[in-house]
Specification:
The chain has 217 residues and is α/β, with parallel strands linked by helices. 32% of the residues lie in helices and 19% in strands. Helix 2 runs parallel beside helix 3. The termini are close together. The structure holds D-xylitol-5-phosphate and zinc ion (ZN). D-xylitol-5-phosphate (DX5) binds next to strand 2, strand 8 and helix 7.
Amino acid sequence: MTVRVAPSILSADFANLTESIRTVETADLLHVDVMDGHFVPNITIGQPVVRSLRKATHLPLDVHLMIDNPSLYIEDFAEAGSSIITVHAEVSCHLHRLLNSIRDAGCSPGVALCPATPAVMIEHIIHMVDLVLVMTVNPGFGGQDFIPEMVTKIRQVREMIDRTGREIDLQVDGGINDVTAPIAVQAGANVLVAGSYIFESPDPAERLQRLRAARRV
Ligand code: DX5
Ligand code: ZN
């Protein structure tokens, strides 16, 4: 399975985003963390930044919404230029409708699971998404340690995906580095999000290549 890498701009220099992005232009996706200070205890960026990023890079924008009431903002993020919009399973009791609205807005729908949320939560909607994001840290901040118990969940989600017979990406996000990437890939992940590991290096492109070399054995 080909491993794809999505650098998270959360760890980039927000005052020099264009320059930071240029260092990772060989990536597969650009991961954009949107936080509202309600669903997670941190505030980051919104649609205006996504709109500007759309003009600054050719990379598909992989928008990770860590916000309450995401249904209010799907149209805006789609119109701003998102390619993938990932919403958290925990925020909506109308996930089916929410995922449909992302597809209807012309984007690829993704669904994310916090560390405490069981894989079974997405059993009845997994066939609707193009991507499942297994959070390997509690969402909200970069630079946290990978939670080893999530390896079991990655395996479970990979089995669920395989049962659908559809091509659905399995993304992991949080604490991904050259030690944890092979563990996640071995368990079934094929899209690796990494923020601090990539952007806190003097050579982000080299870090990106190292992650891409993680193999499922
Ligand atoms: C955390 C975000 C991540 C974050 C990962 O809530 O969803 O995308 O940027 O950062 P690292 O790779 O430093 O753990
Ligand atoms: Zn993220």
